[in-house]
């Protein structure tokens, strides 16, 4: 046997065209495989939606807090020192870094 002949055979087989994908069969196999886990997938999806909704509310609160703070400072109702302190508090509350606008 010639050394590397097995490798050459594998390479020649790899160049053969692939059969077309049957997405109906693929989808059927996926549903069959995931069937016993459907309840868990739905529960995880619902938890993910709630977690995402909570993160959006957090961002809205930080943005609103920054807007109120800017408005109070522009009206002169709080000093610059108080503005900077409150702004820092809002920034620390926001895990994304700086205040959102």
Question: Please, could you describe this protein's structure?
Answer:
With 101 residues, this protein is mainly α. The chain is 73% helix and 0% strand. The protein contains four helices and no strands. Helix 3 (38-75) runs antiparallel to helix 4 (80-93). The radius of gyration is 29 Å and the shape is elongated. The relative contact order is 0.07. The model is unreliable at 97-101 (pLDDT under 50).
Supply the key terms.
about 100 residues, disordered C terminus, 4 helices, mainly alpha, single chain
Radius of gyration: 29 Å
**Main sheet record:** none
pLDDT < 50 stretches: 97-101
Shape: elongated
User: Which class best fits the helix and strand makeup?
Assistant: mainly alpha
User: What is the H/E order?
Assistant: HHHH
Percent helix, as a range, is: over 70%
Count of DSSP E strands? 0
Beginning-to-end CA distance, first to last residue: 72 Å
So how many helices?
Answer: 4
* Percentage of residues in strands: under 5%
Average pLDDT, to the nearest integer?
76
Present the secondary structure layout:
Layout: H1 5-14, H2 23-34, H3 38-75, H4 80-93
Summarize the model shown:
The protein has 4 helices and no strands.
């Amino acid at each position: 046997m010639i050394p590397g002949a097995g490798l050459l055979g594998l390479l020649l087989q790899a160049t053969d065209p692939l059969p077309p994908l049957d997405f109906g069969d693929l989808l059927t196999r996926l549903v069959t495989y995931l069937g016993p886990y459907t309840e868990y997938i739905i529960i995880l999806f619902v938890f993910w939606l709630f977690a995402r909704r909570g993160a959006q509310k957090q961002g809205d609160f930080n943005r609103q807090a920054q807007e109120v703070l800017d408005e109070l400072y522009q009206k002169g109702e709080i000093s610059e020192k108080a503005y900077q302190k409150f702004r820092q508090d809002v920034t620390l509350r926001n895990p994304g870094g700086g205040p959102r606008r």
